[in-house]
Write a structure and sequence with these properties.
The protein is an alpha/beta fold. It has two domains: 20-61 and 145-216, Dihydrofolate Reductase, subunit A (3-Layer(aba) Sandwich), CATH 3.40.430; 76-144, no CATH class. 25% of the residues lie in helices and 25% in strands. It is globular. It starts with a helix and ends with a strand. Bound molecules: NADP nicotinamide-adenine-dinucleotide phosphate. Residues 26-28, 34-35, 39-41, 66-69, 72-73, 85-88, 90, 130, 150-155, 158, 184 line the site of NADP nicotinamide-adenine-dinucleotide phosphate.
């Protein structure tokens, strides 16, 4: 049975924390595919997943998303700032509007960076690769501590490898996909990150789960 919105908000409330809290939100098939056969993930978890997706946004201060996902899923502005992560500064036009954020490296091409800074807020941290500790500090300095990472698998894999993911909200869609879709996180290095179950809700066969990083 579907819980009402107040109950969903209670279940997914961010914990009180004096540091940035990084939550990721994904949907996957029973066999671990991170997208459907059409290459997109939006429809995989049905209406309940879409509903929880929007409630998770409403609970967050900022949505952090990889440029690949923003491009594939057609991201545009939302009620919360979207912070798009791109090394190449390949930002969809729809996100090139005031209020949005671009996260990149400090050694990104200077001219392109300057052009972006005229329009959006830019966080440029790290040389060669993004320095995520600095990025989280800079988001926190803007009052954005409830961080929601909406993927994709490359960005998520980087954050998991760095052990910066505090929590994952994972919807398990009752479908098998086979094919060559990625899992919800991949990175050059494999790691072990124990997680503790927060909740698991069965809504008409769609499993809504929340898992918290076990740092004990
Ligand atoms: N199942 C789900 O819940 C879910 C969620 C999200 C996405 N997806 C699916 O995942 C697929 C996209 O996967 P993806 O792995 O390509 O997505 P992604 O992580 O969103 O995008 C990869 C791109 O984002 C930028 N990026 C990511 N991490 C970076 C880092 N640490 N430093 C600098 N730039 C970084 C780079 O952009 P530049 O090339 O611009 O430098 C990179 O090419 C789509 O099919 C989408 O539907 C599924």
């Amino acid at each position: 049975m579907q819980p009402d919105d107040a109950e969903i908000e209670r279940l997914y409330a961010y914990p009180a924390s004096d540091r940035p809290w990084v939550r990721s939100n994904f949907v996957a098939t029973l066999d671990g595919a991170a997208h459907a056969s059409d290459g997109r993930s939006g429809s995989l978890g049905g209406d309940i997943d879409t509903h929880v997706f929007s409630i998770l946004r409403s609970l967050a201060d900022v949505v952090v998303v990889g440029a690949g996902t923003a491009r594939d899923e057609g991201y545009g502005p939302s009620s919360v700032p979207i912070a798009i992560v791109s090394r190449r500064l390949d930002v969809p036009d729809a996100l090139l509007v005031p209020g949005q954020i671009v996260i990149t490296t400090a050694d990104a091409p200077a001219e392109a960076l300057a052009r972006l800074r005229d329009v959006v807020d830019v966080i440029a941290a790290g040389t060669g690769s993004i320095d995520w500790t600095q990025v989280l500090e800079q988001l926190a300095a803007r009052g954005l501590t409830r961080v929601l990472c909406e993927g994709g698998p490359s960005l998520h894999g980087d954050l998991v490898a760095l052990d910066l993911v505090d929590e994952i909200c994972l919807t398990v869609a009752p479908v098998l996909a086979a094919g060559e879709a990625p899992r919800i996180a991949h990175s050059p290095t494999a790691v072990d990150r124990p997680m503790t179950l927060g909740h698991a809700l069965d809504v008409d066969g769609v499993l809504l789960t929340r898992w918290v990083r076990d740092r004990t």
